[in-house]
Amino acid sequence: MSAEMIQNALAQSDTSALIELLEDKTLPIEEVQSIYNAFKSDKLLVGQVAMNLSLRTSVYERDKEYSPIMVSLLIDIASNPIDMGARWAVAKNPHTPTEVLRHLSNDSINLVRALVAANPSTPSDVLEKFFSDEKIVRDGLSGNPNTPVKLLKILTDDNDKMVRMRLAENRAAPSDILNKLVNDNDPDVSKAAKANLGERG
């Protein structure tokens, strides 16, 4: 879609056309910003902008798509009270700045806190605080490369298979933890720990 068509959709407040545009992760980030700035109080569009930022961000290629505009949008959306779903998308985005993640770590919605707990950009002191949070939040710690080792050691004995599974797949988990998980009574956990150790040579 041309810039002119985008401007027309903005001028006519054509929300369905704008939502369709935001479903495309190749939409120039400047256009995403224009849409957000024009519709900050529209719950649907704020949520769709947040989803667009998620779509264009890869956890594995964290530098890809990084831009000052993206960071500025993430900061703004995090403090926009209109949509919890938008804060959810900001909480899991690896480009979200540390101070925003700190702010979201106190969010009243446990899913937002859980996504902050799983975000590889969240600093270890915030992660440590989450260890005494409710289970859905605590569970995010096992797969996070920044989680302090002393907490990972406690999580090796967690009753929840998925917690041990994420721990077995955690690339930052020390070898002694993985060696313990190799002997886990769940074959999937054991297999994941073996694979993780194998990748280290």
Structure, described:
With 201 residues, the chain is mostly helical. Helix 6 runs parallel beside helix 8. It has 2 domains: 1-96; 124-201. It starts with a helix and ends with a helix. The relative contact order is 0.07. The chain has helices at 3-11, 15-22, 29-38, 43-55, 68-78, 84-92, 98-104, 110-118, 124-130, 135-138, 149-155, 161-169, 175-182, 187-199. The protein is elongated.
Which structural class best describes the helix and strand composition? mainly alpha
Strand content: under 5%
Helix content: 55-70%
Count of DSSP strands: 0
Mean pLDDT: 88
C-alpha termini separation: 48 Å
Series of secondary-structure elements, N-terminal to C-terminal = HHHHHHHHHHHHHH
Bulk shape: elongated
Major sheet summary line = none
Weakly predicted, low-confidence segments: none
How many structural domains in the coordinates? 2
Individual helix count:
14
**Whole-angstrom Rg:** 19 Å
Task: Please name the defining characteristics of this protein.
201 residues, 2 domains
Layout of helices and strands:
Layout: H1 3-11, H2 15-22, H3 29-38, H4 43-55, H5 68-78, H6 84-92, H7 98-104, H8 110-118, H9 124-130, H10 135-138, H11 149-155, H12 161-169, H13 175-182, H14 187-199
Helix pairs in contact: 2-4, 3-4, 4-6, 5-6, 6-8, 12-14, 13-14
